[in-house]
UniProtKB/TrEMBL annotation:
<keyword id="KW-0378">Hydrolase</keyword>
<dbReference type="Pfam" id="PF12388">
    <property type="entry name" value="Peptidase_M57"/>
</dbReference>
<protein>
    <submittedName>
        <fullName>Protease B</fullName>
    </submittedName>
</protein>
<dbReference type="InterPro" id="IPR024079">
    <property type="entry name" value="MetalloPept_cat_dom_sf"/>
</dbReference>
<dbReference type="InterPro" id="IPR024653">
    <property type="entry name" value="Peptidase_M10/M27/M57"/>
</dbReference>
<dbReference type="GO" id="GO:0008237">
    <property type="term" value="F:metallopeptidase activity"/>
</dbReference>
<dbReference type="GO" id="GO:0006508">
    <property type="term" value="P:proteolysis"/>
</dbReference>
<keyword id="KW-0645">Protease</keyword>
């Protein structure tokens, strides 16, 4: 999830990091090939400020993609509007329990927020049940602190999408330099639930026009793709309260009626 105020700070963030972090050298953002940019655009991903690092693509502020996976996502003629969307790959072998591990390097409030996010999902009586486990061995999703340079680039957290084999994305990264200063457990819960949403296949509700939640100029990307499938029953108008908006305003956003419809439809 992205915070527009943080993004606006840009490289001035370096003034806020600790002395030890200032001693590090920010990694170079690798350019994404024109071919991959074209594939991302055709699939409905916003590519402004997207970059490649250590073999992975970071797009839309908090989504991590394997470049090789783009070859399995073929564009279609879906016209994107403000509705709920999901990826082509979803979690399979339902009903299923998803084990979530939280790094012990986090403070207690992160554990509280993860438990609250799990409760939000489990209260919907889905065919997915989440449970927190105390060992990373065999966990389906591990929640870890992000690399220090995430904060440098204005990334507050990241996650990916389910695998072609039907497993959830296996890692969520949270930027402690930012979230350690967040006292609202509800807001942190929403962020974690948002990244969990990506792990089980949810796209940003406003991925086609991030100006809706992020501000700035509107994008006119229209074509979605196999990776952006409309969820029937969700509205055709903007949904300001959705937990899957691209940018956070720092508020607590439990699942609203449209979110629940989307969750129930998929799982």
């Amino acid at each position: 999830m992205t915070n527009p105020k943080l993004l606006a700070i840009g490289m001035a963030i370096c003034l806020l990091v600790s002395c030890s972090e200032q001693e590090n050298v920010a990694p170079e953002k690798e350019a994404i090939s024109p071919e991959s940019i074209a594939k991302l655009n055709a699939l409905g991903f916003k590519t402004d400020n997207a970059f490649k690092y250590n073999g992975s693509l970071v797009v839309e502020g908090d989504i991590v993609l394997n470049e090789a996976d783009l070859n399995h996502m073929k564009p279609s003629n879906i016209v994107a509007i403000e509705e709920q969307y999901h990826t082509d790959n979803l979690v399979s072998s339902l009903p299923r329990t998803i084990d979530v591990y939280v790094s012990t390097s986090f403070s207690s409030k992160y554990f509280t927020a993860v438990d609250a996010a799990i409760t939000r999902y489990n209260s919907e009586n889905l065919n997915l049940t989440f449970q927190r486990v105390t060992s990373s061995s065999g966990a389906d999703i591990a929640i870890n602190p992000s690399p220090w340079w995430y904060y440098w680039f204005g990334i507050l957290g990241s996650a990916g999408f389910p695998t072609a084999g039907g497993d959830p994305h296996n890692e969520i990264l949270l930027t402690t330099q930012y979230y350690d200063g967040v006292s609202d457990i509800g807001a942190l819960t929403t962020t974690i639930a948002h990244e969990m949403g990506h792990c089980i296949g949810f796209r940003h509700t406003d991925y086609m026009d991030r100006s809706y939640s992020c501000g700035g100029s509107a994008d006119d990307e229209g074509d979605g793709g196999v990776g952006a499938n409309h969820i029937p029953g969700t509205p055709t108008n903007p949904d300001a309260a959705s937990w899957m908006l691209a940018c956070s305003d720092g508020s607590d956003r439990p699942f609203n009626t449209n979110d629940k419809t989307a969750l129930d439809y998929l799982y």
